[in-house]
Every structure is written in C-alpha cells, then in structure tokens.
C-alpha cells in the first residue's frame, strides 16, 4: 500500500463554491479547525456562473416585498413539492446573508438613494435580486474568499500560523468517505497533480460539491460537475431525494458549437429582453399555464408597461419560472419555428439603449462578442435550453443540514428539498449562503457534542480506497472518454427535457451496461496529472447518480417542474405529496427508489395562499383543512 499524506481536522468541507466557503467560515467562527477541499483551483467554482443576483426580500426597490411573499414565490416555483421548512428559513434569512456579505467587502450595485439595488427575475413577484451587474456570483466568491483571508490573518496574529484553523487544499479529488461504527470518520482522496493519496481525518464532513451537469451533453456546468458529492453520500449510507428534477435553463448559448450550453443570464429578460421565434413573434404569451393565469400579462403592451409600473400591470411571460420557459422554447423549435441553429432569439437590442445594455449586462456583451461575434446592443442572441441545476440532492434536515449518516452534512446544490420541482433564478445564491451557514453551525454543534469520542479512520479503509482508485491502471478495458460520451448522449436523448417511459427504460438498460463496462475501464500512463485516470474515477460517480435520476424519472408518473413526462403530461395532486428517495442496497450495490411523504406545510404558511390557487396543486382533502379551526402554529414536521 502507498503511503497516505495525513491531516487531522474538526470539520472537512468538500467543495469551494459559495456553500462550501460559507460553511467553512461558520465552522471556523465556532472555533473549529476546518479544511476546505476543492477539486480544481480555489476561486474557480460553478457559483461564478450565477450571474443575475441573490434573491432576498429586502424591499429596497419595492417596499411591498417580504419574506412571506418570497416564501410564496419559492413554493409556487417548486410546484409545492419544496420542503416548506427549508423554504421558510431561506426566505427569512436571505436578507441577513446579503447584508452580511457587505461586511465581507461585497460591492453591490446601488439604488439612487444608496441602498443595495434589486432587479426583476423570473417567478419573483417583486424586484428581489441583489446584484453586481451581471457577475454577481463572481463577486460573491470574491467576498467569501476575502473573509477567509481575513480570518486567516486573525489566526496569524493569535497562533503565529495563518492556516492554524482554516486551510484550503486545492486540486484534490475526494474518492471515499470512510465510516467507523456508522459515523463518518474523514475523507480519502488524491492530489490531481501528483496522483499521491491523502486522508483527512475528521468527525464531520460537509458536502458542498454542487450538481451533476456533466452527465449531460449540453450543460452550463464546468468540468467539475460530475455528481461526486452525491455519489459519496450514497455510498456512505445517505439518501438522495427527488433526483428526477433537473433544471434546463431556458437560455444557453447554442452557437458556435464550441460554446454550446454556456449560460445566458436571466438578467437579460429581467431587464427587458424578450424571446422571439424565427417568425419574429413573442411566443411566450401562448405558453402561460393555467396555474399561472391571472399573474402574468396577457398582451405585449401590458408586459412592456410592467417594467415602469408594476403596481397596475402584470409581468411579461418571459419571466415565468424557468421550467415553463424552457418547455416553451423546446415546443417552438419542435414546431419548426426555431432559429437556424435550433434555438430561439433573445433580443435586448431593440428594448434598451446600447449604453444601458453595456452598463447592466457587461459580461453578456463581452461573452457574445468574444465567443460568437454577436454584438447584443445591435442584434439578438440565439439561445436554447441547457442542463443547469439539480433540484434534487442529498436528503438533509432543514435546520442543521445533517444527513441520516452521523457526521455527514450537505449544503448548496448538493442538498435536495429546498427548491421542490423547480428552482427560481436567484434562489441558488441565497440558498447556498443560508444553508452554507447552517451546515457550518450544524457540523460544529455535532463535533463539539462528541467530546473526545471521535471516530477514527481504519487502516482497512485506506487499503480498500487505494485498491479501487488504482484499478483502472490494471484493467484491460475501454477508454473512459468513450464511456463518458455514451453516458452524456444517453442522458441527453433519453432522460432530457422531455421524457417518455419507454425511453427512460431504455436509458436504465444502457446505464446498467455502461456500469459493467466502467468496472473494467482502462487507463495508460502513471498517476501524475493523468486526466484519463481522473475521468475513470469520476465515471463511477456519474453512473451512480445518473441511474438515480433515471429510476426516479420513471417512477414519477406526472409532469411537474423540471420533470416532464410526455406520457403523463399533467400534474397529479396525489404525486405532490410524494418524495422519491434513492438509496444504495449496500455500498456499491443497486440503486433503490422508495416513496416518502413530503413534509407537511405548517398551517400559518398554508394560509398565505388562496384556496383557489391551492386547489390547482393539492387534493380536495388537503385544501379542505383550511376550513378547519386554526391552531397555534407549530414547526412543520416530517410525517
């Protein structure tokens, strides 16, 4: 067995995006020694792709906004499949997390009277997204990194070592989470540059690894998004919830092919951009679903007036939740009204003066000019749906973010439940701040409660971990790149934006075949920075997670949010109360799906909605509870 480089910490955070950094800051501020592990370079997280803003009901632009309205919008966007406790905590705590970012050094755009500016976004009733032009995610990461450096400077003064209680380990991939007596005892991995193995002993691990977009052929995600954290949690005995719900962002670049899938921020539409088909028609007015009728403009004139007068007009349907817009674009292309490259036009050039576009959307102007030779101040953009975000994820406790495995926590996109069946734009950044903080606090409380009774990594775990990692060098199978391409094509074609039962079954069969082939995958060379070896190890995670997605997609026989079944085209109120839970039958075993009730919505939160609206989502019996005598509100519990 090779010699493992060893480190010992109180808390290990896997992932250095917004959720991971905020969790690490919180754990460190509770006095715990904390390690941050990132798969790529520090600062290169998918969080930077969240360009539009941070959703928080500060009411700076419209004083009518409140946490209750934000909660309502979030539940509507998720088609009431959200964990209501998570949605409540998120709506209540988001403003504090934004103001906190200012104390870390974030420089937000301002209103004329000096407050943090907020912009419109799809699904949000009021202007709610605190923003920094169209590069908010980048500013968020910069500010969190700045806070980490600040804490390290404090430790330098106190301990003589800047990394005494908070250290970043970059370009390190975690492959296993060992357990002792059922509890997490640390994390095993390897350095991507040298290929040498490393073990981090810690009684608490926070998974903040983001999503799994690279399982699909067309995605806005960077190369790191291979579902590592989700698979690590599964193999450790945790469960995943509602993995069928995958958000295809309606506006990704579609030309040239080299940048297909690259995100086009929703800010373009929030600031006045409109969608047109190849015939020049603003087609979104034809796609307002029944559940949203009365909440959106019925004419272009009213939609345009809304940008200036939101009190007396309704929002344009370009600002419907993302799942609705993505399906509409897909329908237009399918009907033969798409652009030459298979998308639709997103036009802001005829809507705003050039100088305003350059001020509000500088990153988008640069992106299209440099990558597609398109000047968005003079011509429309070609856009189409791209795999963007996973609403499902690791099943966690709403208040502590703890999974069912002692010592294992999750936050950000890796954690499921908060967004239900569809995420509203802007809720991702506030989600990772709110629950990143809660994950750090939850892990700290757990560790402090252990005292000296900490689980230790066993030697047998190191032996098994190394053997699994080096197996591709000894195999005589296929090239991992071939399998990855087949996986992406399978998921894109058979478990994509529009699904059919027969095709999903075909995908499950194909995934089983790919898993068998992946077990024999072969790589050449040595362990020093070997991308083929890295992909071979990632494939195990990608295939495990993809199987969970396909099984859940086959099981849910309805269409809701980010899950559209052509053979079951409508929402079914009986399915609204069902969470689909995925687990493994033993470590490395088969994936299993079981039904579990969605957590009950507390009575006072239920009463925020009109019965007529609730009847579109809930069974008659559930809506009838509003007629029963009210009781003292209690915290929602899981039944």
Q: How would you describe this structure to a colleague?
A:
With 639 residues, the protein is α+β, with helices and mostly antiparallel strands. It is globular and about 70 Å long. Helix 3 (84-104) crosses helix 11. The strands form six sheets. A five-stranded parallel beta sheet has the order 7-3-2-13-20, with helices on both faces. A four-stranded mixed beta sheet has the order 1-12-11-8.
Summary, kept brief:
Helix content is 36%, strand content 14%. It contains 19 helices and 22 strands.
Indicate the overall shape: globular
Structural class label: alpha+beta
Terminal CA distance: 47 Å
Strand content: 5-15%
Helix content: 25-40%
How are the strands of the largest sheet arranged? 7-3-2-13-20
DSSP helical segment count: 19
> What is the overall pLDDT average?
94
Task: State Rg.
Answer: 24 Å
Main β-sheet description: 5 strands, parallel
* Number of separate strands: 22
Detail the poorly predicted runs.
632-639
Please tag this protein with its features.
639 residues, four-stranded mixed beta sheet, 36% helix
Topology:
Blueprint: E1 5-8, E2 11-14, H1 18-29, E3 34-37, E4 54-55, H2 67-77, H3 84-104, E5 118-119, E6 129-130, H4 136-159, E7 166-169, E8 172-176, E9 179-180, E10 183-184, E11 186-191, E12 197-201, E13 204-207, H5 228-235, E14 240-241, E15 246-253, H6 267-270, E16 274-276, H7 300-306, H8 322-334, E17 344-347, H9 354-360, H10 362-372, E18 381-390, E19 393-394, E20 408-410, H11 427-450, H12 459-474, H13 480-494, H14 501-518, H15 531-555, H16 573-576, E21 578-584, E22 591-597, H17 603-606, H18 611-614, H19 620-624
Parallel strand pairs: 1-12, 2-3, 2-13, 3-7, 13-20
Antiparallel strand pairs: 4-6, 5-6, 8-11, 9-10, 11-12, 14-19, 14-21, 15-18, 16-17, 17-18, 21-22
């Amino acid at each position: 067995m090779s010699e493992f480089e060893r480190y010992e910490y109180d808390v290990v955070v896997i992932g250095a995006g917004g959720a991971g950094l905020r969790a690490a800051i919180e754990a460190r501020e509770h006095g715990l020694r904390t390690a941050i592990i990132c798969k790529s370079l520090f600062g290169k997280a998918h969080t930077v792709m969240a360009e539009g803003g941070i959703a928080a009901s500060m009411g700076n632009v419209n004083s009518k906004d409140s946490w209750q309205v934000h909660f309502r919008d979030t539940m509507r966007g998720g088609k009431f499949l959200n964990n209501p406790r998570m949605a409540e905590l998120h709506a209540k705590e988001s403003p504090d997390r934004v103001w906190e970012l200012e104390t870390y050094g974030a420089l937000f755009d301002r209103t004329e009277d000096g407050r943090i500016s907020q912009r419109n976004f799809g699904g949000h009733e009021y202007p709610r997204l605190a923003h920094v032009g169209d590069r908010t995610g980048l500013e968020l990461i910069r500010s969190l990194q700045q806070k980490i450096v600040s804490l390290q400077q404090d430790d330098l003064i106190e301990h003589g070592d800047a990394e005494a209680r908070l250290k970043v380990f970059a370009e390190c991939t975690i492959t296993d989470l060992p357990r002792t007596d059922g509890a997490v005892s640390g994390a095993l991995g390897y350095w991507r540059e040298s290929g040498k193995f490393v073990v981090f002993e810690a009684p608490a691990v926070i998974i903040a690894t983001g999503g799994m977009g690279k399982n699909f052929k067309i995605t806005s995600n960077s190369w790191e998004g291979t579902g590592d954290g989700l698979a690590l949690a599964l193999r450790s005995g945790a469960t995943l919830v509602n993995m069928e719900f995958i958000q295809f962002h309606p506006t990704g670049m579609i030309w040239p092919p080299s940048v297909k899938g690259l995100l086009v921020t929703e800010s373009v539409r929030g600031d006045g951009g409109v969608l047109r088909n190849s015939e020049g028609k603003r087609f979104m007015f034809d796609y307002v679903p029944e559940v949203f009728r009365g909440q959106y403009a019925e004419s272009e004139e009213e939609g345009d007036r809304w940008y200036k007068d939101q009190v007396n007009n309704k929002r344009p349907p370009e600002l419907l939740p993302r799942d609705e817009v993505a399906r509409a674009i897909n329908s237009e292309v399918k009907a033969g009204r798409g652009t030459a490259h298979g998308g639709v036009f997103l036009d802001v050039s005829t809507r705003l003066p050039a100088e305003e576009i350059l001020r509000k959307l500088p990153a988008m102007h640069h992106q299209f000019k440099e990558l597609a030779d398109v000047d968005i101040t003079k011509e429309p953009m070609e856009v189409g749906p791209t795999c963007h975000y996973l609403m499902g994820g690791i099943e966690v406790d709403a208040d502590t973010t703890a999974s069912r495995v002692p010592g294992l926590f999750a936050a950000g996109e890796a954690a499921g439940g908060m967004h239900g069946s569809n995420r509203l734009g802007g809720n991702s950044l506030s989600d990772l701040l709110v629950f990143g903080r809660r994950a750090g606090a939850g892990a700290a409380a757990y560790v402090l409660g252990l005292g000296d009774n900490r689980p230790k990594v066993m030697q047998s775990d190191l032996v098994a971990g190394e053997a699994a990692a080096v197996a591709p060098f000894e195999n005589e199978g296929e090239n991992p790149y071939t399998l990855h391409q087949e996986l992406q094509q399978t998921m894109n074609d058979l478990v994509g934006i529009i699904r059919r039962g027969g095709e999903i079954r075909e995908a499950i069969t194909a995934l089983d075949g790919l898993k068998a082939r992946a077990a024999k995958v072969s790589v050449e060379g040595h362990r020093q920075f070997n991308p083929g070896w890295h992909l071979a190890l990632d494939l195990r995670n990608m295939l495990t997670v993809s199987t969970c997605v396909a099984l859940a997609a086959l099981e849910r026989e309805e269409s809701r949010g980010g899950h559209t079944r052509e053979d079951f085209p409508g929402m079914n109120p009986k399915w609204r109360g069902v969470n689909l839970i995925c687990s493994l039958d033993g470590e490395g075993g088969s994936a299993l799906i079981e039904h579990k009730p969605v957590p009950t919505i507390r009575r006072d939160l239920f009463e925020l909605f009109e019965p007529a609206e609730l009847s579109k989502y809930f069974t008659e019996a559930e809506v009838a509870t509003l007629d029963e005598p009210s009781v003292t509100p209690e915290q929602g519990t899981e039944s």
